[in-house]
Amino acid sequence: MRISRRRLSFAAAAACFGLIAAFPAFAPRADAQRLERSMPWIMPFDVGQPLPSSPAKAITSQRQVYDFMWESFVAINWPQLNSGNRAQPDRNATLAHWGSGLESEGPVVWQSYRRPNEVFVKPKQWPIRWNDTPNLQSLCTTPGIGQPMTVNSFSTNYSDFSDGLNQPFIQANYPTGPVTDQNGNYLRYEVGMNQAYFTYVGRYRYYNANKQVRAVARYIDFVEKRGKAPAPSNKRKAKRFQPLPNGTEAYLSSLPDYARQGIVEWKAAWKILGGDDVPERFYRRAAYFLNPDGSCVGPYIAGLVGLHIHRVTKNGGHIGATFEQVDNTSLQPEYSSRRVPGAAGLPPHASLNPGGETPPAYPNGYAICGPLGIGCQSGIGGNLPAPIKDGAALPGAPQITNVVRAVPIPAEVQDVNAKWRSRLKGSVWFYYQMIGAQNRNIDVPNPDLGPGVRGAQVSNTTNLINTTLESYTQKGWSCAQCHQNAFPLGVSQPLPPFGQAWDPLHTISFLLQNAQTNK
Q1: What secondary structure letter does DSSP report for 407?
Q2: How far is CA 78 from the centre of its chain?
Q3: What ranges does the record give for the region Disordered, renumbered to this chain (predicted)?
Q4: Does residue 396 fall inside a structural domain?
Q5: What is the span of the domain harbouring residue 506?
Q6: Does residue 175 belong to any structural domain of this protein?
Q7: 201 lies in some domain
Q8: Structural domain count of the chain
Q9: Average pLDDT estimate for 108-114
Q10: 349-359 burial code (b ≥16 CB/10 A, e <16)
Q11: Are 478 and 466 in contact (CB under 8 A)?
Q12: CB 498 within 8 A of CB 506
């Protein structure tokens, strides 16, 4: 693995950790007024419904969903309150702003969401409180540095959608292998869940695999006998499996306003900054990495390059959206000093693509897909890199992956991005874009997905991917295409059909499958 020249010394990491880069006097702040929400640090409760106390509004256009997920992106990336609770935003702060150099930015809200390996531990380790310090043997830290943001590197033996190096393929426990940026460094991945999800898991004891399996069996038995879903229960000892919370549940009513939502889970992709990268174009954090062989490396300055957000709301149902750093696969002048005074200049080439007159086959790496998906076979790029196994050392000189965007960002999404690009001038989040959102059909029924069939496959799009998180599955692939295979433990073949009676078992989240037993 090629190590960046911009690796920090231990002393430098300790000094810069938690600092915010200098703010240019001429750069406008992306403050609450220009963000057009009075409290942008509070994640909106539902589409068109800022708070639980706000009146619910009907969803009449897909554009509303795009704005809703942009608002969610801003809230989840709001600076975290120092000495506050986990995931508590600092309402007196502003979004991380334009800076220069390799200084680490301050932590944001989603970085203190609970990781699955903090929640799905041996059941005897419960009860766990939201603000408890995790007791993790695998935490990668160095004496004298404190506890900086750590990205683990487990691959498949811990979690279906685990922190790590390998990308998922179709079924999440079948990895395709890693992605290597143009500097020869691996992308790293991590996953987290919000307080509502954590509260749900603890309340119904779904951290215990045995209890999950029994609850699912009782749910299936009820539906098969009565032909309808059982009524949801607020009781801690509910016998039948309970649906993921959408925020309206009584057991969530005591959560603070900034945490009163349904479940939120995220998956992030990071790269080590170095080479020709322009660091100020990335949200940056000091990071240690735990390798599959157990070695701890770092500290580095890592830049965020991809972020999935999955939400569940009462009105919107399951909504998935994905965001990328704008330099991943191509260079875009509208996100630079060429068009926006005060913004950072463009790098010489994209993070995951060398640009120039490179042949379509990319002889120095892996060809993913040609323009518009041409050259893909069943949506999968050719010459896939082999997955890195648990316990294995990282290869010394990994082959560089050259990624192209196989499917263009839809015009309507680009239009919404332009609006948010204007709002976020002065913030590091100016350099991020939404690739799209996937949700139930709103504008026009999608003829490719089958009208009248409930569930994740009835959505606004058949194709939604992130070039850092689904680099090898771009054509005809989407969040729902993968996550419709997600169920709690205890669901077996044949899989439950889509329909009102079975929808609670279609969790569209793999995290529950991490539950353990005491044995």
Answers
A1: S
A2: 15
A3: 333-357
A4: no
A5: 1-358+407-519
A6: yes
A7: yes
A8: 1
A9: 91
A10: bbbbbeeeeee
A11: no
A12: yes
